[in-house]
Amino acid sequence: MQANWDLTNARNAEMRAAMSPAELNSWLPNFPITELKNRGALPKTNDKAEIGVALLNFLEIGSFTSIEAKYGALAVQHRRARSSTASPAHIYAWLKLGENKAVEMDLPKYNERSFFDAVKEIRSLTIQEPEFFEPRMDELCRQAGVAFVLEKPISKTSLYGSARWISGETPIIQMSLRMKSNDHFWWTFFHEAAHILLHKGKNFADDKNGVGDGLEDEADAWAEEILVGKSNFYNFKINYPRSEAQIIDFADSIKIHPGIVVGMLQHAGVLPFTHLNKLKVRFDWAEEQVN
């Protein structure tokens, strides 16, 4: 144990000595340093060299010149919004925050059948309150060998969620709770679950209003089928439902929350984005809730 500690200290000292002020001034502004400090990923110090060493350790790389190669090695297919001005460094930091949480979980080997069964049970949780459904989602995913991680959004990103594989073996679903409404939350989960089940070994990160491709369209179609049933939803939406009662009745008939139906109708162009939002449920991070 002492030997490992000494080795770590020696490695950190070596990295620190290799950093020039010019390099630190060039690289550090690319990353959300203050946010990473606030989340405990970096030390709360103004010593740039200490921050630089901690950042490299957080990113699990030996030098700043390795950053682009490391990010590229993730092979994340980014469903980017057309208007996106996202920072790759900020995206990578957000993904790494989630990954670091996932690797600390004691998970069994991934079982596809168990995860599919878990997803079906999780669908029934859409009508429950967060204090019930969130721990149950976590438990069901863990039992199937999937890391389910909620990580606050970070600046210069517009990510809703990500589905990827750690070391090619352990799937992770990471969600940002962006928009804080239940329609976005549940759609994101089932979309990312689709990537895990349909596109094994591939890594995805999905923006708000991201531009689709073949794999993204597959995930969307799968999520729609699981949530509402494609034919059920088509037969419902072609009548252009506009009333609260119509939507509640349909949601009750398929046993999901009406807020999800509102969001899907809005996305399909059947409802304006200003219509019937009162049927949605707003979520907050626990520390943001006001008693």
Overview of the molecule:
The protein is of the alpha/beta class. The protein is built from 13 helices and 5 strands. It has helices at residues 2-18, 21-27, 33-38, 48-59, 67-73, 88-103, 112-123, 130-143, 182-198, 214-227, 230-237, 244-254, 258-267; strands spanning 76-79, 147-150, 159-166, 170-175, 203-207. Helix 9 (182-198) packs across helix 10 (214-227). The mean pLDDT is 90.
What brief labels describe this structure?
alpha/beta; single chain; five-stranded mixed β-sheet; 291 residues; 52% helix; 2 domains
Number of separate structural domains: 2
The largest beta-sheet arranges its strands as 1-5-3-4-2
Q: Biggest sheet: strands, sense, closure?
A: 5 strands, mixed
Separation of the first and last Cα atoms: 45 Å
Radius of gyration (CA) equals 21 Å
| Unreliable stretches | none
Question: Which structural class matches the secondary elements?
Answer: alpha/beta
Element-by-element helix/strand order: HHHHHEHHHEEEHEHHHH
Number of helices: 13
What assembly state would you assign to the polypeptide chains in this entry? single chain
* Percent of residues in helices: 40-55%
Shape call: elongated
Per DSSP E runs of 2 or more residues, the count of β-strands stands at: 5
- Mean pLDDT metric: 90
Task: Estimate what percentage of residues fall within beta strands.
Answer: 5-15%
Question: Layout of helices and strands, plus pairs?
Answer:
Elements: H1 2-18, H2 21-27, H3 33-38, H4 48-59, H5 67-73, E1 76-79, H6 88-103, H7 112-123, H8 130-143, E2 147-150, E3 159-166, E4 170-175, H9 182-198, E5 203-207, H10 214-227, H11 230-237, H12 244-254, H13 258-267
Helix pairs in contact: 7-8, 9-10, 9-13, 12-13
